[in-house]
Amino acid sequence: MDEEILRKAIVAQTAEDHVMLIVEAGDIYFEETLNLQLECRNILMIDHLWEFTSLARLDLNNNIIEKIEGLDRLIRLTWLNLSFNRIEKIEGLVSLRKLEVLNLSNNRISVIENMDTLEKLTHFLIANNLLGQLENVLYLRKFKNLFTVNLRGNPVSEEDDYKSSIAAYLPNLVCLDYRLLDEKTKNEASIKHRHVLDEVKQADEVKQSQEAEVKLHTDAFVELLNGSHLFQSMLKDNPEAETLHCVPEVAPLLQRYPVLSDFLIYCRGINDHLYSLTPTLTFEQQMVELCTQLLEIGLAEHKRRETEVNSFFSGQNETVTRYQREASQILTHFEQQHKGRIVELQQLSKKDLVMVKINHCKEETNQLCNSLLEQEHHLISQLEDSIKKLDINISDMIGNFIETAQGTYPFSFRTFVQCQDLENEYHEKVQVIAATREYVAEDNQDMPDLDEMLFVDKDTVMDALDNSHTNHLCKIKDRETQLITRADAWKVALVKGIHDKEVKQSSTRISDIYRHAAHYLEQLEGLSVKRFRPTV
Predict the structure, then answer these.
(1) Helix count (H) and strand count (E) of the chain?
(2) Per-residue DSSP letter, 32
(3) Which tens digits make up the pLDDT trace of 378-407?
(4) pLDDT at 3
(5) Closest listed residue to residue 398, CA positions, set 302, 331, 469
(6) Alpha carbon 122 to chain centroid distance?
(7) pTM over 0.70
(8) Domains of the chain, earliest start first
């Protein structure tokens, strides 16, 4: 696919009475093209479509395309026909949020996937492919607007009870394989498969609950802190660490650690007996407990921020509503007076007197404009003050939360600092073991599964241990940096978004003020011209 093919396609599909005009002018504007038909052209790869930003319908059927790609800029696309190609995987559709019709029939697709953003999809045609799992069709349950589905010619359509299962799984479906699904069929299907549907419904509810939880944690900047994710990330892609953990003397270090919370450390200074009563947890469990503390703090802080933001918007809406009500009252009062002035002017016959009255009306209109602009200025000042206050409050909240996570003041939970302390303590103990162990091949008979190349000599082990320790600390630091960066970015984006929106709305209100004033002035000018138009 190249520009020449695209130009020829546009010319070919243009109405005959316009073709010569386009060809002679030599101007073909890709960005203005709404429909593009490129079927039966032996196209191998989708390309050169980035300028077609207004394209609503694209037909690429009957080609030899193997991969769905090059469609990212076609955000207005509502119709996409890729039937009769050689596509094996559904992909490259993320940007097509307005897509309503998707035809992938007669390809080599075996899985329905990667269509999550196509929320407006109404027609999905995937006949004569390689779909073999009836359970995979459950993926289509998320498309609430789906009207028509065609699965004919797939192995799945040969299964017993195929029609009834689809009718049960997709209750909003109206047409299956180009045949209407009547209400009787749907009701019978729902009764027959009620047990399966109950399980599917429960699974959907669990999934929705999990997705809601992930979103909440992400909004609170504490995603993946509700388990051992941080601990496991330290060990991921670190085979030396896994090998070292198998050393008989090292393994117990992962199993038992005294729990030294800030409170217990403080109590230990008062009464050493309390320390002897301190429970023990594994290294991983302590990391999980620290992460859980930060998770709970993060969720509580998120709720506080949410309350602050909601309060701000509530106050802002109240302020704007009050302004709009007052402005409306002023305009209504002026409109009544203006109509009275117009009637009075129409009854006057002397030109000089009429012009004096018109000038007076113009002054009244200008005063109205100035009054509304002054009121708008007061409104802007109020809104800016509230935005500044929100910025200060949110900045304090974010700052305190970050300090809690970092441990930059004495009485914080010091989550990431304590995680680093745990890692440092573990590393020091492993160093002692590594320094005292004999590194002779025959001495490692009790570790038959360990990497012999790692345990060649002490220096090799110590280097591996140091690298592992550095990687672990980097993982902890990276998670800390991620939290700080995202929290700061959210705060900046929130305030900027609110400010930009207010500037835009203020500009609209000011334009409305001038538009009203111009309307009244035009009426007066029109009356003047009409009353005293010179005779010819």
Answers:
(1) 14, 10
(2) G
(3) 999 999 999 999 999 999 999 988 888 876
(4) 63
(5) 302
(6) 23
(7) no
(8) 3-215 (3.80.10.10), 229-254+284-530 (no CATH)
